[in-house]
Design brief:
Order of helices and strands: EEEEEE
Largest sheet: 6 strands, antiparallel
Strand order of the largest sheet: 4-3-2-1-5-6
Number of domains: 1
Shape: globular
Distance between the termini: 13 Å
Structural class: mainly beta
Helix content: under 10%
Length: about 80
């Protein structure tokens, strides 16, 4: 996992544990492999608050995750404002 910045868009590549006990602020659903989310906040080097929304812009989930919990790939780089990969 490369450097992840606030407002990057990331894809969930794998989930290493049940996230239902994590700091989940909006538990409408849980992250699943293949979903994309926006990095709302970078709390520490490998700890993030991620938000996933539906097509209407409604929050599906808002959760705190660490690199131990999930593998992430940046798909939109907020610094360059370009798609990645």
């Amino acid at each position: 996992m490369g450097r992840i910045r606030q407002y990057d868009v990331v894809r969930i590549d794998s989930v290493h544990k049940d996230l239902s006990g994590s700091h989940c602020f909006q538990p409408v659903s849980q992250p699943v492999v293949g979903e994309e989310a926006t990095v709302v906040e970078v709390l520490a080097k490998d700890v993030f608050i991620l938000e996933s929304v539906n097509d209407a812009g409604e929050t599906l989930w808002l959760i705190e995750v660490s690199a131990r919990d999930v593998d992430l790939t940046v798909t939109w780089d907020s610094k360059t404002e370009r798609s990645v990969g």
